[in-house]
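FIELD: query
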Amino acid sequence: RERERKRLLLRPGTTARPNTGAGQQGCRSQPLLVYVQRSCACKVSETRTRKSSTNHHLRNPTTNRHPSHHIMLAVHRAGASSASVLHTCACVLAGRRALSRSVSSTTDHAVHEHPRVLVLYEDVGPLSVRVKQRQDAWHTTAQTQQPPDQQQSLLANAQFRFADNPIDMRRELEAFSPNVVFATSSLKFPGQREAACHPSVKWFHVGGSGYDHLVPLPRNVTVTNSKGVLAPFLAETVVAGMLMLNGGFLRYGRQQAQRFWKPQSFRPLQGKTLLLVGVGAIGSHVARIAQSLGMHVVGTRASVRAMDNAAAAAAASDAHCHEMHPPEALQELLPRADVVSLHVRLTDDTHHMIDEKALAAMKPGSMLINTARGAVVCQTALQAALESGSLSGAYLDVFEKEPLPASSALWGLDNVIVTPHAADTVQDWPLIFTDFFCSSLELWAATKPLPNLVQQG
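FIELD: result
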């Protein structure tokens, strides 16, 4: 023991444990508390476990700080040498969970805070009801589970606050200091980046797929989104728009308003080519339906840049496409497509991706579908192409300026379907996002990897 004490004294940044009496040498109930600070300095002390309602005995006796500021290891002194303890500290600092075999009983668990969640949505009533249902389930599991599970304990003690406007959001940020923010409907709830940049926030979850309203992303904050959660439903809308345009339903709608009976012919989609620009979760669902209609599906995806032909073919097959190309091939692919559907995020590279040059390259009489972001298309150039008849029609759910001004000529074009950014507005969609977030919160409490990771904090 004296040799171990001297070894500790030789380590810079460590504090030797106090001398113990001979009567204490055989006590195995005394844990050796090892505090590993972010500065990589180890402070070691020895204390008896107290049966108390408080957690004062878990404080670092050197700094008197709670272990939430450290990574705490409880190492029972059953033959554990100082070398094995220091090795364990090094493992934790390196991000590894492996422990020295010489330590008989160790816990390398990073102390996790209880979730304090701020929910941002303009109609928080239904969301609060759904959250309460999940909380009740967490409480029940925590009470019945034996032995008690730390993850369930954290979830059972999770706190939720709700804000339905930016003023209440700022008030809750200051009073509640949330470590998690779940925010949706960025168009109707501005200022969400302010919440993401709050010092207390560690994880920001976007109730949707787009996160351009948070760019530049705040540093040291984990950001996730709900990409793919509503993909099957948005794909239904995309295909419905394609069928309406191709089947002449806009023309039949005008005839119905005039009580005019006249059959019209339409071109079958079977054998036609669909170009999906940016094949992700939504594009894959659209491709699957389009293939069932007999269409030839071509896609673009950025990850194909680093693939050989065999890997690109495999990626195409996995996404229900016949071909997969890098984004740089767009200009060459446009003349082949009878229908072009956009599914890309808005970035500097995709801004006005479909401009006058791209529209001129499209096959005469082809159709354009945009349910991605309005600024991906140059709206002025698109309007000219639709008015001239070089494009037979367009289904537009997003626009450069939203709401679309009443003065826009797009409202009056008889070959355009206009919807108010509602392509994925499936019934109870906020509750679907809430369920997905709560499932992710369970993973966060268990310190497991989060799905749809945009940025690791």
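FIELD: remark
Residues 11-111 have pLDDT under 50 and may be disordered.
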